Amino acid sequence: MVDILRFRDDEAVDHAAVTVDSFVEQTNANAVRIEPSDDARDLIPHLAQIHLVEVNFPVFGDGRGYSAARILREAGYTGEIRAVGDVLVDQIGNMKRCGFDAFEPDAPLDPADVKAALNRWPEVYQESADSRTPIWNLRHE
Question: Could you give the strand order of the β-sheet that contains 52-57, starting from the edge strand earlier in sequence?
Answer without folding.
Answer: 5-6, 102-105, 80-85, 52-57, 31-34, 18-19
